[in-house]
Amino acid sequence: MFAVQSGIQLRFPSVKHVTTQQLHSWLHTTNNNSTMNIMLLDVREEEEYQISHITGAVRAGPETSDFRPIYESLKALATKGENYAVVAYCSVGYRSSAFVDKMQRYIADTQDNKTYNIYNLEGSIFKWANEQRNMVDRSNNVTPFVHPYNIVWGKLVSSKLRKYDLDK
Q1: What is the pLDDT, as a whole number, of residue 142?
Q2: Closest CA to 91 of 155, 139, 137, 28
Q3: Which residue blocks in the chain are alpha helix, DSSP H?
Q4: For a designed S-S bond to 162, which of 30, 60, 148, 167 qualifies (C-beta 3.0 to 4.6 A apart)?
Q5: DSSP state, 142?
Q6: CB atoms < 10 A from the CB of 10, how many?
Q7: What gap in Å lies between CA 66 and CA 87, rounded to an integer?
Q8: Which residue pairs, CB below 8 angstroms and at least 24 apart, start in 104-107?
Q9: CA–CA dist 80, 147 (Å, integer)
Q10: Alpha carbon distance 140, 53 (integer Å)
Q11: What span, in angstroms and rounded, lies between the C-alpha atoms of 159 and 152?
């Protein structure tokens, strides 16, 4: 997984990354009596999202080309103060890094000079699942399973956690 993460960081040098440990901390703690406001974006295909996603995540497919609604939500989130972050994830981090990169370019094209707290989740949902962190399925039931994306990339997630079909 380390080699994959290193390659992703080299391919998308402008994208900031957050660890699974840091995201878990943000989701479960408060600082100075104020909660960290997190916008989680799942940048996977619908069938992957249906198997599992991090609780509270909204699907923003890898094919997304209209970043305006996400940008507007981001601006609204940022007005609440400095305790916020937008975190995108996919299976291993490539699609979500590409998504964050495109989103950053969209924001730059708006001539908005504000710096936003936008991150890719390092290791993405495969690392999250391998660490046995909570996920939910399409019915919001807790699940340990994750869609392995394909036979090659799926080798990065524990075999006992792989699930291609929600109904099986």
Answers
A1: 96
A2: 155
A3: 2-11, 20-28, 46-51, 68-78, 94-109, 124-130
A4: 148
A5: B
A6: 8
A7: 18
A8: 104/14, 104/15, 106/67, 106/68, 106/71, 107/67, 107/71
A9: 34
A10: 9
A11: 12
94-109 helix and 2-11 helix, angle to the nearest 10 degrees = 20
Q: How far is 38 from 35, CA to CA, in rounded Å? A: 9
Instruction: Tell me what pLDDT residue 125 has.
Output: 98
Q: Is 19 helix (H, G, I), strand (E, B) or coil?
A: coil
Where does residue 144 rank: exposed (0-12), middle (13-18), buried (19+ CB within 10 A)?
Answer: middle
Contact by Cβ (8 Å): 97, 6:
no
The residue type of 142 is: V
* DSSP-derived secondary structure for 56-85: T-EE--TT----HHHHHHHHHHHTT-SSEE
Buried b (16+ CB within 10 A) or exposed e, 62-79: eeeeebeebbeebeebbe
Instruction: For residue 92, report the phi and psi dihedrals to the nearest 5 degrees.
Output: -120, -15
Residue 49: which residues within 8 A CB-CB, separation 6 or more? 42, 57, 59, 138
Residues of the chain scoring pLDDT < 70 = 30-34, 168
Could you tell me the two tokens for 106? 């969209």
